[in-house]
């Protein structure tokens, strides 16, 4: 059989060249831009600044604030997501098969768009007519300032994001739970372990790869959060929900500082990468 | 089995919490204007009213935005099926130099945060030579800003789709290719006539995944869909919200309309979707 080498390229080249165009070239270009000052509204191209943007990032209180807000958001969302997703997965694993039709329902929030979810929750959080404050009122509690109080707004976004992610992660956990052989757990029970001990010392360690996956994808998505605060709170009140994603958008498209915005996005990418790596190494050492 | 009953109730409770917000906006969208802001509030509408849907569909640009989103999503689905799937197939089944290194590069592409590429990609899209009034150096016009192709651009080949296709094709027997090749089929014929017909679950998953990616996209659509003509539904909804005192009735109706295509796709092919998710998670 004659192997024609070129016969492969019509399959591979279009896809790869396209990724060069949408991923590689923009990444390199962003790196270059991060060392420049560039306002597309002005005449002339990017001007070389060296490390000035990065120096600005490290001293700019706005950037530090946005990083803190984003980190708080991520570190609230991810653990809550894991707890609820795992609880739902364990329930689904033990529930009767007739309920498996409900699985589609748990997916719905994660396939609805961020904008749709934001609008749904904006309506739920509506101060007087929203479902939540009506329910609070019905049981005699005062209205909650869900999105209008700077001390609450971020937590309200956390609740929404957890609601959105639980079903998705639960199905991932469920798939992993179903691969754990019953006799492994049975062996533990024979040795006198309680249900909790079986979970804690057998099931949970066996789920480690899934938990790494959930944490890493959670870090990537929460640290890039943009649409929800942009739509629901515009980053407010008092900048309390200005995530790095919102800040980058403002720098680039409102202040016309594409160079600075590129530097911020590189900083964000580095933070995400470092946290993901740290999580991976920590689990590996513990295992 | 008392504990089984408790477990079932737990699952149902989770389902209620998951679905209640959807039910609430669905109900609200059918309430007559007088009942949306009624005091004391009604949970159920006293009569079903289509007034908000009629308003959203006849007195706003929602139908145009819907069409824009649909056009972009179809372009994205076509691009992924015709370009990304064959690339994934080649990574799984065809021998070529640097195959593993190039695949690692694709994986690295999946890791690049969206936000790092959005700004340069915007500048590149604006300055594509000879498009949208640009001269050969890419200056003077708007490139592909405000076009459907511009909106589809970052999603036409998704790295994740290449990854998913490679996983799928590497689980199919390679003997199929060898046998067809011995019978004199070209590589193209092997792919289209042998592998594609047995890959319908993969193609269904990719159709849903890439449709959702395009349909749900917000940031890129916000900065590239400049002007009314190419505004997508997601951006339209957010603009709707910020224009003056939010007119909640039609906004809720539009939110429901924006969710319908996703729900339909999803219900039609739930199994394929979950299979795709599982492939993504066990890497």
Task: Tell me the fraction of residues in β-strands of chain B, as a range.
Answer: under 5%
Task: Give the strand line-up of the largest sheet of chain A.
Answer: 1-2
Tell me roughly what share of residues is in helical segments of chain B.
55-70%
Q: How does the overall form of chain A come out from the CA principal axes? A: globular
Uncertain runs of chain B are none
The helix-strand sequence of chain B is: HHHHHHHHHHHHHHH
Query: Which structural category do the helix and sheet elements of chain B fall into?
Result: mainly alpha
CATH hierarchy class name of chain A: Mainly Alpha
Helix/strand/pairing category of chain A: mainly alpha
| CA distance, first residue to last residue of chain A | 49 Å
In round numbers, the mean pLDDT of chain A is 90
Total number of distinct structural domains of chain A: 1
Overall CATH architecture of the largest domain in chain B: Orthogonal Bundle
What can be said about the biggest beta sheet of chain A? 2 strands, antiparallel
SSE run of chain A: HEEHHHHHHHHHHHH
Chain-averaged pLDDT of chain B? 88
Instruction: Give the CATH H-level superfamily of chain A.
Output: MetI-like
Q: Summarize the main sheet of chain B.
A: none
The protein's oligomeric status is heterodimer
Q: What percentage of the residues of chain A does DSSP assign to strands (E)?
A: under 5%
């Amino acid at each position: 059989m004659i192997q024609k080498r070129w016969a492969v390229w019509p399959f591979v080249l279009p896809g790869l060249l396209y990724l060069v165009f949408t991923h590689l070239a923009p990444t390199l270009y962003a790196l270059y831009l991060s060392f420049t000052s560039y306002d597309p509204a002005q005449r002339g191209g990017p001007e070389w600044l060296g490390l000035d943007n990065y120096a600005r990032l490290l001293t700019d209180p706005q950037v530090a604030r946005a990083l803190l807000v984003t980190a708080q958001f991520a570190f609230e969302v991810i653990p809550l997501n894991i707890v609820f997703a795992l609880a739902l997965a364990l329930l689904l694993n033990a529930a009767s098969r007739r309920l498996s039709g409900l699985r589609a329902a748990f997916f719905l929030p994660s396939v609805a768009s961020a904008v749709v979810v934001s609008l749904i929750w904006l309506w739920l959080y509506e101060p007087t007519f929203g479902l939540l404050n009506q329910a609070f009122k019905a049981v005699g509690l005062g209205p909650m300032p869900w999105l209008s109080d700077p001390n609450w707004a971020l937590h309200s976004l956390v609740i929404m994001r957890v609601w959105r992610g639980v079903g998705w992660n639960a199905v991932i956990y469920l798939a992993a739970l179903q691969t754990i052989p019953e006799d492994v757990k049975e062996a533990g029970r024979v040795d006198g372990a309680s249900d909790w001990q079986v979970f804690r010392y057998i099931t949970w360690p066996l789920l480690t790869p899934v938990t790494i996956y959930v944490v890493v994808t959670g870090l990537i998505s929460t640290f890039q959060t943009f649409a929800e605060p942009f739509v629901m709170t515009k980053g407010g009140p008092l900048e309390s929900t200005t995530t790095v994603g919102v800040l980058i958008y403002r720098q680039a498209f409102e202040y016309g500082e594409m160079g600075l915005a590129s530097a911020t996005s590189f900083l964000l990418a580095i933070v995400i990468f470092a946290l993901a790596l740290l999580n991976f190494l920590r689990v590996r050492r513990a295992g | 089995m008392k504990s089984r009953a408790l477990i079932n109730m737990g699952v149902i409770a989770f389902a209620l919490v998951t679905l209640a917000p959807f039910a609430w906006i669905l109900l609200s969208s059918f309430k007559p204007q007088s009942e949306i802001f009624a005091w004391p509030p009604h949970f159920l509408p006293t009569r079903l009213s289509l007034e908000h849907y009629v308003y959203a569909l006849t007195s706003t640009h929602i139908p145009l935005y819907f069409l824009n989103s649909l056009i972009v999503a179809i372009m994205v689905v076509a691009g992924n099926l015709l370009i990304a799937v064959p690339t994934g197939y080649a990574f799984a089944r065809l021998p070529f130099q640097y195959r593993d290194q190039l695949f690692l590069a694709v994986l690295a592409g999946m890791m690049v945060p969206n936000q790092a590429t959005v700004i340069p990609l915007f500048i590149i899209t604006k300055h594509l030579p000879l498009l949208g009034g640009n001269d050969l150096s890419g200056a003077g016009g708007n490139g592909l800003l405000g076009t459907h192709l511009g909106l589809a651009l970052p999603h036409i080949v998704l790295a994740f789709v290449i990854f998913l296709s490679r996983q799928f094709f590497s689980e199919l027997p390679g003997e199929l290719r060898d046998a067809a090749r011995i019978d004199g089929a070209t590589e193209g014929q092997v792919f289209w006539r042998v592998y594609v017909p047995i890959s319908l679950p993969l193609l269904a998953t990719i159709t849903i995944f890439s449709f959702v990616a395009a349909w749900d996209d917000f940031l890129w659509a916000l900065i590239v869909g400049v002007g009314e003509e190419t505004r997508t539904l997601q951006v339209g909804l957010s603009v709707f919200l910020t224009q003056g005192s939010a007119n909640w009735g039609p906004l809720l109706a539009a939110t429901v309309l924006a969710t319908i295509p996703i729900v339909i796709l999803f219900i039609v092919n739930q199994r394929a979707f979950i299979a795709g998710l599982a492939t993504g998670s066990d890497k």
